[in-house]
Design a protein that fits this description.
Rossmann fold; 10 helices; 277 residues
Length: 277
C-alpha cells in the first residue's frame, strides 16, 4: 500500500483529500497545526500527527514519527497554508515573514525531509497546492501572491534538478474552491493590519464584506475537483506539471500568455475581490 502524507487536513481541501485517498486505497498520513484538530482526525480513523509548518521543530518531530511507520513515502501533498490579505504598504516585515514561514519555508523543509526516502526508492510524487495567484497577482493579496509565486519558482527548479529520477512534481492551481480560506484570511487580516491607519480604508471595507460573506464566488467548485486532479497526479505514469482548476484559473492562464502586461493589470485590478485560493 502506497503511503501519502497530506498537510493541512483540519477541513476543506485537505480533509477531502484525506477521505478520497483513503477510499482509493492509499495509506494516508494526515497532519494539522492544532492538536484539537489532530484529535478529531484520529477519531475519524486517520493516522494523524501535529505539524505546524511555521515550526522546524514541529516538522522534524512529525517526520521522525512517520518515518518509523513506513519505509519512505510515495506521495507528499503540500496543502497547509493560509492567505494574508492587505495592501503591501500595510504589511510589516514580520507579517510577511510569517506568511513565508507557513507557505514556503515549511513546505521546502518538509520536501527535503521526504526526498531521501523517495530517492532511495527511486519513486515518488510531490504535489503542491498552489493557486491562480501563483502566476497572476491581484491587489490586497501581496503576501499570499508572493508566497505562491515563490513556491512555483521552487517547484520549477526542483523539477529540473530531479529530472534524472522517477520523482514527479505537480502544481495544482485552483481558483475559487469551497473552503474556510476566506474565514482564515479575515482572521489574519484583523490580526496583522490596522485598517484605521491605512490609505486603503475604504477598499478594506469592501474586501471585508466579501470575506465575511457566505455567498460563494463565481465559478466556485467543491474540493472534490482538487481530489480528481490529485488522483491523476498520483496515478498517471506521466503526471501533469500544471493542473488548472476552475474556469477563472484557466481563463487567466490563457490571458496572461496573450495580453500585454498593462491590459492584464487593468483586468486583475477589477477582478481583485476577496476569495480566490
Amino acid at each position: 500500500m502506497q503511503a501519502v502524507l497530506i498537510t493541512g487536513c483540519s477541513s476543506g481541501i485537505g480533509l477531502c483529500l484525506a477521505h478520497g485517498l483513503k477510499q482509493a486505497g492509499y495509506r494516508v498520513f494526515t497532519t494539522a497545526r492544532d492538536p484539537k484538530d489532530v484529535e478529531i482526525l484520529l477519531n475519524l480513523g486517520f493516522e494523524s500527527y501535529q505539524l505546524d509548518l511555521s515550526s522546524s521543530t514541529s516538522i522534524r518531530n512529525a517526520m521522525k514519527v512517520i518515518n518509523t511507520q513506513v519505509d519512505g513515502l510515495y506521495g507528499l501533498i503540500h496543502n497547509g497554508a493560509y492567505g494574508q490579505v492587505g495592501a503591501l504598504e500595510d504589511i510589516s516585515r514580520e507579517t510577511l515573514e510569517a506568511q513565508f514561514q507557513a507557505n514556503v519555508f515549511g513546505w521546502h523543509e518538509l520536501t527535503n525531509l521526504v526526498l531521501p526516502g523517495m530517492r532511495s526508492n527511486n519513486n515518488g510524487r510531490i504535489i503542491y497546492l498552489s493557486s491562480v495567484l501563483g502566476f497572476v497577482a491581484m491587489p490586497f493579496r501581496g503576501p499570499y501572491n508572493a508566497s505562491k509565486f515563490a513556491i512555483e519558482g521552487l517547484v520549477d527548479t526542483l523539477r529540473l534538478e530531479l529530472a534524472n529520477t522517477n520523482i514527479q512534481l505537480s502544481l495544482i492551481q485552483p481558483g475559487p474552491i469551497e473552503s474556510k480560506f476566506r474565514i482564515n484570511a479575515y482572521k489574519a487580516f484583523k490580526r496583522n493590519v490596522d485598517m484605521n491607519k491605512s490609505n486603503y480604508k475604504s477598499n478594506y471595507k469592501q474586501m471585508i464584506k466579501r470575506l465575511q460573506s457566505d455567498e460563494l464566488a463565481d465559478y466556485t467548485l467543491p474540493p472534490e475537483a482538487i481530489l480528481k486532479c490529485t488522483l491523476h497526479a498520483l496515478r498517471s505514469p506521466k503526471a501533469k506539471i500544471h493542473y488548472w482548476v476552475t474556469f477563472p484559473t484557466k481563463l487567466f492562464a490563457v490571458l496572461k500568455r496573450i495580453l500585454p502586461s498593462r491590459i492584464m493589470d487593468k483586468i486583475l485590478s477589477k477582478a481583485g475581490g476577496g476569495g480566490k485560493r
